[in-house]
Write a structure and sequence with these properties.
heterodimer, A: alpha/beta, 6-stranded mixed sheet, 4-stranded antiparallel sheet, about 35% helix, globular, B: mainly alpha, two-stranded antiparallel ribbon, about 0% strand
Chain lengths: ~260, ~325
């Protein structure tokens, strides 16, 4: 469903600030795969998301969605195929517009926008039903402005909006990182529920190792623009945070040893 | 006095169209667009020249609207495709339009003495209404246009336009081309402004190359005054407020002239009105909060006094 081949991205090339964000990333997701990505700051996780969604163009390599190379498609042309939830709860919704208007915009994602009423009577019923699945009581506040919602509610709505039209690929960019633990758990559960129900092919970045282990069927660890660990579905079950940390230390250690050999 | 006020309200209704255009860019798209000073004149200039050359007033006015849309699109293209800062793009269009408007008119002033205009036609058509005929009919037209704008902003395209000014990143991730929504918004806005200019030229009986100077500030004044007085909770409410604000602005100007101020002072008065309208609401709410806090503190003090402990008690 999502196929990344030989992705490379360097920022500020040929300056002192040169930064290799991605180096030869190869990743292939089958339909329904839910991959969690962990890695320290600057590992290239967000760059990867931005390249998939079309915010950046890769220096080298191709992005293939549903068998189609999308490198030449700009962000908004790719958007019908890609759902995205950002870290900032403010980023995924329009604050001065109502809940139903926001949902109407999400609903129009994979259609040609027309001069039809965005929130018709018929659609309103559909929106109400859909929002009810959040169990947050938002169905009674459809005409409230989204800016009045709490961060957790806004993020739940963002998730709902991102998955409304069942995109080919769902990108979750640390989407629970800005929430308190209880809210984060609500959003995590909701994510699992929606992804399983709609069988969405999903790529999720997180700093929370436990969350990375709880969710999804495959885990990837990134460091300095490379994939340094790829845990397949059969091994991911039963894996603990301690084992993951050990593995990380081992890989890093090996690399350090290699560097020492080089310098010696 | 009454006829002077009727005139002020009529002028306000005509200016309301310009203010609605400013509202579209300034509030909905969150793009302050200075093209307005130029496109207002363009509308008036083209309509006046066409009418003076014998074209029907209606056709001339429609042509003025289209010219405004084209001018707005150019500003939009400069801003989106040319990546020029929105303010600068507007200023560039405005300055270029000064020359273009002179070209359209061929001289600095085109009089419409004795020509049939939309305004004279409306007055004749509504003669059964007496002196208020013009006022009533153009008010109906402007309200109709307001309703069309309300309807448009509720359509799928309209929602995308509003989201562009609200959260551009978000609406792009929902597959809207924000370059296009911005260009569309600027085109519609300047179409309205040019319509306002065309009607204004026909109302005052001439087009002048300087008739658009300061229009953007008058538009802003109308938007801000209207929102402060009538509120802006929903789009419907806000557009109605803008129409009301434009009329109130003209009435204030008429009153200022009546007390003996010179017409050349009007730009200063306008600037002062805008400054007041911007500063007052914040000052008032600040004062209110201060007073409420004082009351609360007093209450907390008396509460602790009766408790006898003299300790600080949270109320």
């Amino acid at each position: 469903m999502l196929n990344l081949k030989g992705l490379n991205k360097v920022f500020n090339r040929n300056t002192v600030d040169e930064k290799i964000a991605l180096a030869e990333i190869n990743l292939s997701l089958q339909p329904g795969d839910f991959v969690t990505i962990i890695g320290s700051n600057g590992a290239g996780k967000s760059t990867l998301m931005n390249i998939v969604s079309g915010v950046y163009e890769p220096d080298l390599g191709t992005v293939e969605i549903d068998g189609k190379v999308v490198n030449d498609l700009s962000e908004h042309k790719r958007a019908p195929m890609i759902g995205r939830v950002f870290q900032d709860p403010m980023a995924g919704t329009a604050p001065t517009m109502t809940i139903e208007e926001n949902l109407a915009m999400a609903f129009a994602r994979d259609k040609r926008r027309s001069l039809m009423r965005g929130v018709s009577k018929k659609r309103k019923e559909m929106f109400r039903e859909y929002v009810t699945s959040l169990h947050l009581g938002l169905e009674n506040r459809l005409t409230a402005k989204v800016g009045l919602l709490s961060g957790g509610e806004r993020q739940a709505l963002s998730l709902l909006m991102a998955t409304f039209t069942k995109p080919k690929v769902l990108l979750l960019d640390e989407h629970t990182a800005a929430l308190d633990p209880a809210r984060a758990q609500v959003i995590t559960d909701l994510t699992r529920e929606i992804v399983e129900r709609d069988k969405l092919t999903t790529l999720m970045v997180t700093h929370n190792m436990q969350q990375a282990l709880d969710l999804g069927n495959r885990l990837i660890m990134m460091d300095k623009g490379r994939i340094i660990l790829d845990v397949p579905p059969e091994k991911k079950q039963g894996l603990t945070v301690e084992q993951l940390l050990e593995e990380f230390a081992r890989i890093k250690g090996e690399k350090l040893d290699n560097d020492r050999v080089m310098l010696a | 006095m009454l006829s002077a006020m009727t005139g002020a309200v009529e002028a306000g209704i005509i200016f309301a169209l310009m203010a609605l255009g400013v509202y579209l860019t300034f509030r909905i798209l969150d793009l302050p667009d200075l093209t307005v000073d130029g496109s207002f004149t363009s509308g008036g200039a083209l309509a006046a020249v066409m009418i003076a050359n014998g074209y029907s007033p209606l056709l001339s006015t429609v042509a003025a609207i289209l010219l405004g849309c084209v001018v707005g699109s150019v500003t939009g293209l400069l801003h989106t495709k040319g990546k020029i800062n929105a303010l600068l793009a507007g200023i560039l269009s405005m300055i270029a339009l000064y020359s273009i408007n002179l070209r359209i008119m061929g001289r600095a002033n085109v009089p419409l003495l004795g020509d049939d205009t939309l305004i004279t036609q409306i007055t004749d058509f509504g003669s059964f209404l007496g002196d208020a005929s013009l006022l009533v009919i153009i008010l109906i037209v402007v309200i109709a246009i307001k309703l069309i704008i309300d309807w448009f902003l509720d359509t799928e395209i309209g929602l995308a336009l509003r989201a562009t000014g609200d959260n551009e990143k978000m609406i792009r991730s929902f597959a809207a081309n924000t370059d296009n929504t911005k260009i569309l918004g600027l085109a519609l806005s300047n179409g309205l402004v040019a319509l306002s200019g065309a009607l204004w030229a026909q109302y005052q009986g001439f087009a002048d190359v300087n008739m658009g100077i300061g229009m953007i500030v008058i538009g802003l004044a109308s938007v801000i005054i209207g929102e402060a007085i009538f509120g802006h909770k929903t789009v419907r409410r806000a557009t109605l407020a803008v129409v009301g604000g434009a009329i109130i602005y003209r009435v204030i100007v008429a009153l200022a002239l009546r007390v003996g101020l010179d017409p050349s002072d009007m730009k200063l008065i306008t600037a002062l009105i805008v400054i007041l309208a911007l500063v007052m609401p914040k000052m008032i709410s600040g004062l209110k909060e201060k007073r409420e806090r004082a009351v609360r503190r007093k209450r907390a003090l008396t509460a602790s006094g009766t408790a006898g402990g003299g300790q600080h008690v949270e109320s």
